[in-house]
Amino acid sequence: MELDYSYIQVKLREDMVKDVYADLFKAGLRINDKYELHCTMMYDERDIESPLSILDPHREFRAKIIGMGVLGDANVFHLTSDELLEKFRELKEDGYEHSYGTPLFHMSLGYKLDDYEVLIMDQVFSEWMGRELVFNNLSFGFKKEPK
């Protein structure tokens, strides 16, 4: 099987997902359930079909929201976390090769938003700056892009 990339991610803890979705709903913004609220810790462009290390799905990682912005086609919370950074280093020691050099921890809130939706999202989530988010369900996955 030829793969385009593999990844390690953590998902936002379920009780916090409800808080994010509640604010999106109150603001009249669409909730894109195609993408779960998560933080990707590692992208590896090699053909890896199974994890290179043991991943504990129960371990929790805390991260602070330090800003919002656009990253590719997504509107994101920018995150900082000593815990995520330490796990990133462990993953590299286990043999993963991060495709983007240094990590840029973020959590996508919406995709392909128009200017009005971006403005509303910035307004709704401005009070979230500095808030701590908790992630768990550390998992491995791979993605094969359609040709």
Number of strands: 6
N-to-C SSE string, H for helix and E for strand: EHEEEHEHE
Structural class: alpha+beta
Largest beta-sheet characterization: 6 strands, antiparallel
CATH superfamily assignment?
Answer: Cyclic phosphodiesterase
State the CATH class.
Alpha Beta
Low-confidence stretches at least 5 residues in length (pLDDT < 50)? none
The spatial strand order of the largest sheet comes to 2-1-6-3-4-5
What percentage of amino acids are in beta strands? Answer: 25-35%
Gap between N and C termini, in Å? Answer: 14 Å
The number of distinct helices, counting runs of at least 4 residues, comes to 3
- Please bin the fraction of helical residues: 10-25%
CATH topology: Cyclic Phosphodiesterase, Chain: A
The CATH architecture assignment turns out to be Alpha-Beta Complex
Sum up the overall morphology in one term. Answer: globular
What's the pLDDT, averaged over the residues?
87
Can you characterise this structure?
It is built from three helices and six strands; from the N terminus they run E-H-E-E-E-H-E-H-E. The mean pLDDT is 87. Strands 2-1-6-3-4-5 form a six-stranded antiparallel sheet, with helices on both faces. The protein has one domain (5-143): Cyclic Phosphodiesterase, Chain: A, CATH 3.90.1140. The longest helix is centred in the first third of the chain and has 13 residues, at 14-26. The protein is of the alpha+beta class and 147 residues long. Helices cover 24% and strands 35% of the residues.
